[in-house]
Amino acid sequence: MTGFRLREWETSDAALLLAAYGGAGMATERPAGVSTVEDAGRLIREWAEEAAAGKAHTFAVVDASEILGQMRVTMQSSVHSIGWISYWTLEKHRGRGVGSTGLKLLARYCFDELGLFRLETGHRVDNPGSCRVATSAGFLVEGRERQKLLYDGVRYDTETHARLATDPDPA
């Protein structure tokens, strides 16, 4: 595995986070109300509060000190130990294994540190890169959800994936 690791976002990362949301393919990743560096700093503080409350954990994927992408798990069901995963990679770092390595690291954290049993994720069917990330990180395809997402007046099918704590670690 590369030198990639996960770390919590810091408020000093706000300008980079805001710039990342302006990159190619990132329009659907930007949370509502995040349009300034101050907004991005507020979002990072909110992520820290969510982590402290055990609701979600959001990490920057880094190589040394350079931010390459993001991994996030949201607690979907504490009773059933299920988390929902989302992720993205900065455009200039795509194709380097950032997403798949980051997702493997996040999955291990979720299983070992958070005690989750099942992790779920999904992607638009017209996003083969996201599919490669999920399958490379050991997430098995479980099905298609028809016209689940609506962006700019267009409905998109999604493909769902999951990984269990009992699944073998991917190579």
TrEMBL record:
PANTHER family: ACETYLTRANSFERASE, RIBOSOMAL-PROTEIN-SERINE ACETYLTRANSFERASE
Keywords, sorted A to Z: Transferase
InterPro entries given in the database record: Acyl_CoA_acyltransferase, GNAT_dom, Ribosomal_N-acetyltransferase
Transmembrane segments: none
PROSITE patterns hit by this protein: GNAT (PS51186)
UniProt protein name: GNAT family N-acetyltransferase
Domain N-acetyltransferase: residue ranges: 4-157
UniProt keyword Protein transport, yes or no: no
GO MF annotation list: protein N-terminal-serine acetyltransferase activity; protein-N-terminal-alanine acetyltransferase activity
GO cellular component annotations of the record: cytoplasm
